[in-house]
Amino acid sequence: METSTSQSTADALDKGGILKNKIKVLKKMYPHTRSVLLPALHAAQQLYGWLSEDAIEQVSRLTGVTTADVKGVVTFYSLFKTKPLGRHVIYLCTNVACLIMGADTLEEYLGKTYGISHGETSADGRFSLVIMECIGACDKAPAMLVNDDCHFNISMDNIQQIMESYR
Amino acid sequence: MIELTIDDIKVKVEKGQTILQAALANNIYIPHMCWDPRLKPYGGCRMCLVEIEGQPRPLASCSYPADNGMIVRTNTPRVAKLRKTMVELLLIHHPLDCPTCDKAGQCSLQDLSHQHGPSQNRIQEEKHSVARRTRNPFIERNQSRCILCGKCVAVCWEHQGVGAINFIGRGFDTKVSPAFEEVLDCEFCGQCVDICPVGALGNKPFKHSCSTWFLESSDNICPYCSVGCTVTLDTREGKIVSTRGIATKGVNKGDLCVKGRYGMDFIYAENRLKKPLVRKNGGLVETTWEDAMHVLAVRLNDVIRDKGPGRVGVIGSPKFSNESNYMLQEFARKVIGTNNIDSSACFGFSKVQKAVSQVFGLSSLPISLDSPIGKGAVLVIESDITSTHPVWGLKFLEARKKGSKIIVLGPRETKLSRHSDVWLRVRPGTSHALLNGIMHLAIEGAYHLKNHMSTAATNFSELEELVKGYPPGRAAEIAGVDTDEFIEMAKVYLTAESRMAALSLGSVENNKGLNTAISAANLVMLTGDGPSALQMPADYANTFGMWQMGISPENLPGYKKIEGSPGKNLFQMLYGKKPLDALLIMGDDPLSTYPDLKKVEEALRNLQLLIVQDIRLTDTARLAHIVLPEASWAEKEGTFTNAAGLHQTTEKISTPTGDSIAGWQIFRNLTRYMNSTPPFESLTALRDHLSDMPIDKGKEKWQYVPVHYEEVEPVDKQYPFIMVTGNLMQHSGALSVMSKNLSEAFPGAFIQINDTDAARLGITDGSTVRVESRRGAATVTVEVTDEVTQGMIFAPINFATARLNELTYAYEGGGAPLTAVSIQQVQSA
Ligand code: SF4
Ligand code: SF4
Ligand code: SF4
Ligand code: FES
Ligand code: FES
C-alpha cells in the first residue's frame, strides 16, 4: 500500500523515453540519486513546460525519490511551475533593493498593461508574472528575468521596449 | 568515554552522543520538541538551547556533540528568556484549540507553554486555518496545529522507509501532506501520529473518545507477531481507548506497526464467544460450564474407551499463551494419554526447528532483533520481513543506513527490495537453488574465506559434491536471473566483512520449504559464520513459546525428545488415510488458514467428537460438537515468548467477555471432570513450574545436510501460474480479521497479478477472477501490479471468505509447496 505511481501514466507522458534517457545520464554524474532530483526536475520542466502531477510521478519513478519528497522540492522553489504558464514568464524581483528602486511601479505597470498579478497569466497566454525574492542583481536594481534572460536597471522608460521583444 | 559537566553535575557518556542525550541519560531534563532518539537531529525548534562555557551564543543541545571538559548550563536566565520567545513564536499561528484537541494533556507545546511560555503573546498575526484531512481509515491531519518540527516526515522516511508525507509548500503555507493532497495511502504504521508533539496528526479510531487525563495507561505485549512489541494501552474503565509506543519501553523502543497500533480492538469483536456451546439436535446452543464440561468428559471418555487414546488428537495455538499451551499438552499427554499433539507450525516453524536440529544439533535457534545492525551483508531469502515482522524489519533499514549491504532474493517487490543494494527477482521458490549456487562459488573461489570455512564438519565432501551441480549458469537459470548478476550478488555476500541470512517460514508461506532452511543453514556454516548468522523468526506472537511448551508430536516441554514413537502430526491427523475420531482444537481455525480446505473439512466432518476452544465463533467452531469460550489476550494474564526467546508477561486489563475463562483454568477444570487430578491448582503454581522448567538446548554439532532443489508442483499448460501465498502487513490470520479497524481499512480478499500477464489475459484491475488449481477454485478480486513478476500470483491467505486455501495442499517433503493455478476473469470491475 505504498503511494507508488502507476507506471502506465508516467510512460504515456514520456512517449519517446526522452526524460528517461536524460535522467539516466544525470544519474551517472552524481554520487547520490537524490542529488539528481533538481536537474531532473529542470529537465522535466523544460520538456513539458510545467510540472504536472504526472510529470512529478514520472520524476519520482525515474529517480527513486518518493512523490511526496519530489512535490516538496517542487513547491519549495518558485522557479518550478506547478501549473501551465504563459509563453513567456516574467520573474520580477520585489525585494528591498529593487523595491526602493521602483519595482512596485513596474509591478503596477505589468498589471495594468497585461492584466496580470503574481501567479497569473494574461488572457492571450502571452505573459505570466511570478514575483521573486532577490535574484542577486541588487546593484543593477530593479531587475527581472523573462524566461532565461536577465534585464537590469529597468525603468518606466525601457520596460515597454523590453516587453515588446517577447511576442 | 567523555566527561562533561551539566548543571554542576559531572556526567559520563559515550563519544558521539549529543549534549541532550548526555543530559537525558543522566536524568537532567532539557526541553526539546523536534528531537527523537530514532532520528537524525533536525535542530528546528530551538527549545533545547543551552549555554556552554566559552561559547558566545547558546547552542542547540540536540545536535551539538558532547565533548570532554564541557561545562553546560541548561537553565540560565538567558536560555529561559530565549525559550519563552521560542514558545511565543510557535504560538503566533497556532490555533490554540486545545479544548477540542485529542492531544491536549499529552501535548509538548501545551506543556512547554505552561512551563516556559509567556502568558500573553506580544505578536498578533494570522492564525493557521487549514482544512482537516480525514479521508483515510486511520490518520486525521489537522495541519492548522502543525509547528513544522519535521518529525513526522523524518520518521516516515528515515526510520520507516516509506516517505508518504513531506512538507509541501513554503513559508506560512507549508503543510505536511502526501504529494498531491490526495487521500493518505500508506502502510499506516501510525509512527507519525505518535511522534507528532502536537495534535496535528491524530488517530482516527480513537478520535474524541476520551480526554487524556481520564485515561489510565498500562503496558502489554502485542498479541500479533513474534517481535513481541510492548504496547502502551490507554484505557478508560477497562476499555482500550488508544495504543501507543513509548521510546523507553520494550524490545521495540516505541516502534509499532499498523496491527500493534490499530488492531487491538479485536477483543471487542461481535463474534466473541460468551458462553460454552453444545450441539443439540443439530444446532449449537448456549449452556453452562458445568453442562459443557460434563458432556465433554463423558463423550471424550467414550472415544478413549471405545477407540483408544491414539484416536484422539489436540491442536495448540501460536496465538495463545504458554500457560494455555502447556496445560493443553499436559491434558493430552496425562489425561487423554496421547502424543497426537501439533499445531499450524507444522506448515511453518517446524521447518525451522528441523533444519536447526539437523544441521546444528540445536533444539532451537532464537533470533536476535539487533542482528542486522553492523553486518557487512544481509541476505534476505524470499521473505517479506517488513510485512511479517514489521518492527524487526525496521532494523534492516537501520542496518542499511549504517552501511550494511542488503541483498534481497524474491520475485515480489517489498519494502526491503526497495531499500536493497542488490535485488534479484528470482522465480518463486527457487532461492534454494541460488543458495546452493553461492556455496558452489564459495568453495570454488572464495579464497579469503578458506581459513574460516567449516570443512571439518560432517558431510563436507557430500555437500561439496552436491553443490558442484550448481554452477552459476545453472543456479541462475533455475532462478530465472542473469548469471552475471547472480555472480555479482554472491560476491557482495561472500566478500563482506560479516554476514547474515534471514528468512521467515510462516505457516501460510509456501515459497520456502524445509530444504530452503537447511540450505541456508549449510551456507552460514560453510562461510564459518555459524548459527547466529541465520535468523529464522517464529511467526506468531507465541509460536516460539508454544513449541517450547511441548506442542509437538515429538517433543515434550523444554524440547525434551519423546522416548519411543512420536505421536501423529498434523499431516497424519487431518490429511492422512485414517484421520482421527476426536480432536480438540485450541485457538486455531483450520478451515480458514490450513491448506487443502476440502480435505480438512472432510476430516473435521468425519470426527465423532470435535471440541473447539477459542475466543470467537470461527468457521471451524461452527462444525464443532462442543465449543468452549476462552478469555482473550488482555482479559487474562499470560506469557508470550517472542522470536528471540524472550518470555514476556501479558497483563489483564479488561474483564473477560461473557463467561469466558483462561485456558489453564479450562484444562484444570476439565481434568477434574475426567476424574483426574490437575497438575496445578493455581496460576502461580503453574507459572512457578514453567519458570523452573529445564530447557534441553541440544548438543551443538555441525553437520551438513546436502539437499537438492526440487520443484514440487510444476506449472503446465492447464495451470500456467505459480501461486505464492503469504501474509500482508495489515493482516496475519485470525486476530486481525476480528479487528474492526483493520478490516474496515483492508477489507476483502484479493490476489495480485503482473500487469503484462493481465494485459495478455484481458484481466483488468479490480475485476473478479476465478483462480483454479488441481484441487479447487476460488473467486476473488484482482489487483494488477508490477509488484509481482510474470507467471506469478500472490495471494494473501488470511481472508477466510475467499477460501483460497481450497487451492493449496499440505506437503511434508522438503520442497516449497507452491501451487500451480490458472486464472480467468469472470466479471469486470
Ligand atoms: S502512518 Fe506511517 S507510513 Fe503512513 S505517513 Fe505516517 S509514518 Fe508514514
Ligand atoms: S504534523 Fe506534527 S510531527 Fe509533523 S511537522 Fe507538524 S507538528 Fe511536527
Ligand atoms: S511488529 Fe509485531 S509485535 Fe510489533 S506491533 Fe507489529 S505485530 Fe505487534
Ligand atoms: S533585491 Fe532585487 S535583485 Fe536583490
Ligand atoms: S530539540 Fe533541539 S532544536 Fe528542537
From TrEMBL, chain A:
Alphabetical list of SUPFAM superfamilies matching this protein: Thioredoxin-like
In the Enzyme Commission scheme, what number(s) does this protein have? 1.6.5.11
Swiss-Prot/TrEMBL cofactor(s): [2Fe-2S] cluster
Example GO molecular function: oxidoreductase activity
Query: Which Pfam family is one of those matched by this entry?
Result: 2Fe-2S_thioredx
Q: Supply the InterPro entries for this chain.
A: NuoE-like, NuoE_dom, NuoE_N, Thioredoxin-like_sf
Enumerate the UniProt keywords alphabetically.
2Fe-2S, Iron, Iron-sulfur, Metal-binding, Oxidoreductase
What the entry lists under PANTHER family is as follows: NADH DEHYDROGENASE [UBIQUINONE] FLAVOPROTEIN 2, MITOCHONDRIAL, NADH DEHYDROGENASE UBIQUINONE FLAVOPROTEIN 2, MITOCHONDRIAL
Report the family membership.
Answer: Belongs to the complex I 24 kDa subunit family.
In Swiss-Prot or TrEMBL terms, this protein is called: NADH-quinone oxidoreductase subunit E
Please tell me the species this chain comes from: Candidatus Magnetominusculus xianensis
Lineage, top ranks: Bacteria, Pseudomonadati, Nitrospirota, Nitrospiria, Nitrospirales
Instruction: Provide the gene name from the record.
Output: nuoE
From TrEMBL, chain B:
Q: Which PROSITE patterns match?
A: 2FE2S_FER_2, 4FE4S_FER_1, 4FE4S_FER_2, 4FE4S_HC3, 4FE4S_MOW_BIS_MGD, COMPLEX1_75K_1
- Any idea where the 2Fe-2S ferredoxin-type domain is? 1-78
A single GO molecular-function term is: oxidoreductase activity
> EC number(s) per UniProt?
1.2.1.2
Cofactor needs: [2Fe-2S] cluster; [4Fe-4S] cluster
Q: Which SMART domains match?
A: Molybdop_Fe4S4, NADH-G_4Fe-4S_3
Q: Which residues form the 4Fe-4S ferredoxin-type domain?
A: 137-156, 176-206
What sequence ranges are listed for the domain 4Fe-4S His(Cys)3-ligated-type?
78-117
User: From what superkingdom does this record's organism come?
Assistant: Bacteria
Q: One Pfam family, please name it.
A: NADH-G_4Fe-4S_3
**Keywords associated with the record:** 2Fe-2S, 4Fe-4S, Iron, Iron-sulfur, Metal-binding, Oxidoreductase, Quinone, Ubiquinone
Ranges of residues in domain 4Fe-4S Mo/W bis-MGD-type: 215-271
Q: Cross-referenced InterPro entries, in alphabetical order?
A: 2Fe-2S_ferredoxin-like_sf, 2Fe-2S_ferredoxin-type, 4Fe4S_Fe-S-bd, 4Fe4S_Fe_S_CS, Asp_de-COase-like_dom_sf, MoPterin_dinucl-bd_dom, Mopterin_OxRdtase, Mopterin_OxRdtase_4Fe-4S_dom
4Fe-4S in keyword set: yes
Described purpose of this protein according to its UniProt entry = NDH-1 shuttles electrons from NADH, via FMN and iron-sulfur (Fe-S) centers, to quinones in the respiratory chain. The immediate electron acceptor for the enzyme in this species is believed to be ubiquinone. Couples the redox reaction to proton translocation (for every two electrons transferred, four hydrogen ions are translocated across the cytoplasmic membrane), and thus conserves the redox energy in a proton gradient.
Q: Which protein, by its recorded name, is this? A: Formate dehydrogenase alpha subunit
Upper lineage: Bacteria, Pseudomonadati, Nitrospirota, Nitrospiria, Nitrospirales
